[in-house]
Design a protein that fits this description.
Radius of gyration: 28 Å
Strand order of the largest sheet: 12-11-10-9-8-7-15-16-17
Number of helices: 15
Strand content: 15-25%
Helix content: 25-40%
Largest sheet: 9 strands, mixed
Structural class: alpha/beta
Bound molecules: S-adenosylmethionine, iron/sulfur cluster
């Protein structure tokens, strides 16, 4: 094939996103992320600079052999191709569509429980809310005209609000597609449950432990466990769609799996159980409540939600994009966990003016392109971004999530893996073995690895591929060093260090087990 004036391009459904060190392809068909190694990152970056293949060889100071290998790497790659034009899908800053979507309506701060972690600082002895039933009705109407399609009635404990049913009816009348009542399920009358069942309203409830002492310790009310369990059974008998939130605190940190199983035994579907860690908001601002590990496990993103809308690639944006919460005093905030980010008040202004205000738009429009560190990361269009969490900890709207353990400047996940070993700990008699999910292709003597689980591609240099070939569980580290010592002109100490470093990298990339 003639390569004169040819460029490297990517499949039409992929976009190429560069970070400080590494790059990835986002495939908008299967919504998977394909990691690129440094070599492919480099050649695609050069291609993006309108360089032809010939320019790239010249730039890489390659010889003819390298040129042929490069062509083969491109042709063999599932999402790369040779083309007449330079990279067609150069990624600009991707933006979300910001339009009204979800409304939390907090009906009261009063509550029949006094949970230790409550962000709303709810309790029995709280002053009644300022908004009247008519105010709430006006807000429900206005929000529906503005395009909000989903509404959640919450609190405090919304079931203590005398006109709850009237407001639920109002939401029905104004055509909300999804209506949910978030309740602790301690007091649910027959008439309320029947109304909810007949009107296709959803329920969300909180549950803390399969052990009643622990649940009641968190809600600070004896007997709450039994009442909530009884009501969960009633909800399920009436076939009302139910979601359950388990909040992880120090007191129930070891109960999560068993609590999930307990709920599933009651008939709750596993998919409708959501686990969250206590947030530093309201009474949740208390280090004593934090689980010992404090952090939620941050998973490496393998999927993304970038969509092509016929014109542009769009991203969902931050979690609070399209959302508002209205507190019982009429304050409008972008999220129930960001209580001091007040963008307006529905008693003082119309909801329309608040929704169209620059203050709210600025919050909805935030993306990881604005966030410290994330802006230099290739995963910035894939990571779920809850802005309220870093904001409530740092008071900086653009701080990175405290749970992220990726360093885009080194391309390394700083996960403390108990199985990881340092170079000093690699023993001579270890027999490294390749992971089963790695498929190996050899093209012109160059080894290309594809991780079928993570979709990562790795091109090995000559020394690394010699080491890789010997990771068969039969060769010890010492055997590998010996055979390379016979092949390459270097001191044995140098070879030993290189072999161990390479094995560590293989292990870090999930290619082998040591
Ligand atoms: C504020 S409550 C209102 C609804 C109802 N009273 C209930 O407790 O189910 C809504 C949800 O927020 C959770 N929540 C309250 N404070 C929290 C915090 N600091 N961090 C995380 N979740 C919290 C509760 O556990 C509950 O699942
Ligand atoms: S979390 Fe819910 S049930 Fe608990 S005190 Fe707050 S509002 Fe009441
Ligand atoms: S949260 Fe971490 S992995 Fe995600 S974009 Fe930010 S730095 Fe990258």
């Amino acid at each position: 094939m003639t390569t004169k004036d040819k460029y490297i391009d990517i499949s039409a459904n992929c976009i190429f996103v560069k970070g400080a060190k590494r790059a990835v392809l986002y495939n908008t068909k299967d919504h998977k992320i394909y990691r690129l190694n440094e070599y492919l990152t480099k050649i695609l970056s050069l291609s993006q600079k309108q360089m032809t293949l010939d320019d790239i060889y010249y730039h890489l100071k390659g010889n003819k052999g390298i040129k042929e290998k490069l062509i083969r790497v491109v042709l063999e790659h599932p999402f790369l191709k040779l083309s007449q034009d330079p990279l067609s899908l150069e990624v600009k800053r991707l933006k979300p569509i910001c339009k009204p979507d979800f409304l939390w309506l907090e009906l009261t701060r009063r509550c029949n429980l006094r949970c230790v972690h409550c962000y709303a600082e709810a309790g029995a002895d709280i002053e009644e809310s300022c908004l009247s039933t008519n105010d709430y009705k006006r807000v429900i109407e206005e929000a529906s005209y503005l395009g909000f399609k989903n509404i959640q009635f919450t609190g405090g404990e919304a079931t203590l609000y005398p006109d709850l049913v009237e407001l639920l009816k109002h939401a029905k009348r104004f055509g909300y597609e999804f209506i949910e009542l978030y309740t602790n399920a301690v007091n649910l009358s027959h008439s309320l449950l029947n109304f909810i069942a007949q009107n296709k309203i959803n329920i969300a409830t909180s549950f803390y432990s399969y052990k009643k002492e622990t649940h009641d310790r968190i809600t600070q009310r004896k007997g709450s466990f039994e009442r909530t369990v009884e009501n969960i059974k009633k909800i399920l008998r009436l076939k009302i769609p139910l979601r359950v939130g388990i909040i992880r605190l120090k007191y129930n940190q070891d109960h999560i799996q068993k609590t999930k199983e307990f709920l599933v035994d009651l008939g709750v579907t596993a998919e409708s159980i959501r686990i969250d860690t206590v947030r530093p908001s309201g009474r949740g601002c208390n280090l004593e409540l934090m689980p010992d590990d404090k952090k939620d496990f941050f998973q490496k993103p393998e999927h993304h939600y970038v969509k092509y809308n016929g014109n542009d690639f769009v991203i969902p944006g931050t979690c609070w994009n399209g959302k508002i919460a209205i507190t019982p005093s009429g304050d409008v905030i972008p999220c129930v966990f960001a209580r001091d980010l007040v963008v307006g008040n529905v008693i003082k202004s119309s909801l329309k003016d608040i929704i169209n205000s620059r203050k709210l738009k600025d919050l909805w429009e935030i993306t990881l392109d604005d966030v410290e560190v994330c802006k230099d990361c290739e995963y910035r269009y894939a990571c779920f971004d809850c802005r309220a969490l870093p904001y409530s900890i740092t008071k900086n709207l653009f701080a990175r999530s405290p749970n992220c353990n990726y360093d885009p400047y080194t391309g390394q996940w700083n996960v403390s893996n108990p199985e990881e070993v340092s170079i000093m700990q690699i023993k001579e008699d270890y027999r490294p073995v390749r992971n089963k999910e790695i498929s190996t292709k050899v093209i012109d003597g160059e080894t290309i690895l594809f991780n079928t689980q993570t979709n990562a591609l790795h091109v090995l240099n000559m020394v690394a591929s010699e080491i890789w070939n010997r990771c068969d569980g039969k060769h010890s580290v010492e055997d590998i060093v010996d055979s390379l010592f016979d092949q390459f002109e270097a001191s044995r100490d140098q070879i030993e260090e290189d072999v161990k470093k390479t094995l560590l990298q293989f292990q870090e990339l999930g290619l082998i087990k040591l």
